[in-house]
């Protein structure tokens, strides 16, 4: 989710556990709009016949935190990758890993671009 004017965080809906989880690399900053996003999701889910009114909003710990001002998008992608791979034990990355993560992501997109050439 796009939080504020220049920050990205991950909001996960856990249907089985009946919880919302927020993975935020700048958790120390108060973000009043995150609960607003959750309320919007609750209204949407109600329209899908899922009553999430009493589901708690949790901030899982540990949650790797960024040390620079411009890595929130990379952290959000890493949270998604780890959750998709079910590699969530202590979310095995940190700010120190970001240059390599950023380079791997760039390489992935460059390869995808060139692999897609001639397919139009």
Automatic annotation (TrEMBL):
<keyword id="KW-0788">Thiol protease</keyword>
<keyword id="KW-0378">Hydrolase</keyword>
<protein>
    <recommendedName>
        <fullName>Ubiquitin-like protease family profile domain-containing protein</fullName>
    </recommendedName>
</protein>
<dbReference type="GO" id="GO:0016929">
    <property type="term" value="F:deSUMOylase activity"/>
</dbReference>
<dbReference type="GO" id="GO:0016926">
    <property type="term" value="P:protein desumoylation"/>
</dbReference>
<dbReference type="GO" id="GO:0005634">
    <property type="term" value="C:nucleus"/>
</dbReference>
<feature type="domain" description="Ubiquitin-like protease family profile">
    <location>
        <begin position="1"/>
        <end position="83"/>
    </location>
</feature>
<dbReference type="InterPro" id="IPR038765">
    <property type="entry name" value="Papain-like_cys_pep_sf"/>
</dbReference>
<dbReference type="GO" id="GO:0006508">
    <property type="term" value="P:proteolysis"/>
</dbReference>
<dbReference type="InterPro" id="IPR003653">
    <property type="entry name" value="Peptidase_C48_C"/>
</dbReference>
<dbReference type="Pfam" id="PF02902">
    <property type="entry name" value="Peptidase_C48"/>
</dbReference>
<comment type="similarity">
    <text>Belongs to the peptidase C48 family.</text>
</comment>
<keyword id="KW-0645">Protease</keyword>
């Amino acid at each position: 989710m796009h939080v504020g004017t220049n920050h990205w965080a991950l909001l996960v809906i856990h249907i089985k556990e009946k919880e919302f989880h927020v993975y935020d690399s700048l958790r120390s900053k108060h973000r009043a709009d995150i609960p607003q996003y959750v309320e919007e999701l609750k209204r949407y889910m109600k329209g899908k016949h899922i009553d999430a009114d009493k589901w708690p909003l949790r901030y899982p710990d540990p949650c790797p935190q960024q040390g620079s001002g411009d890595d929130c998008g990379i952290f959000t992608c890493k949270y998604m990758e780890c959750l998709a791979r079910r590699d969530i034990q202590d979310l095995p990355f940190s700010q120190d890993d970001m240059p390599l993560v950023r380079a791997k992501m760039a390489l992935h997109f460059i390869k995808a671009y060139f692999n897609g050439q001639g397919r139009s």
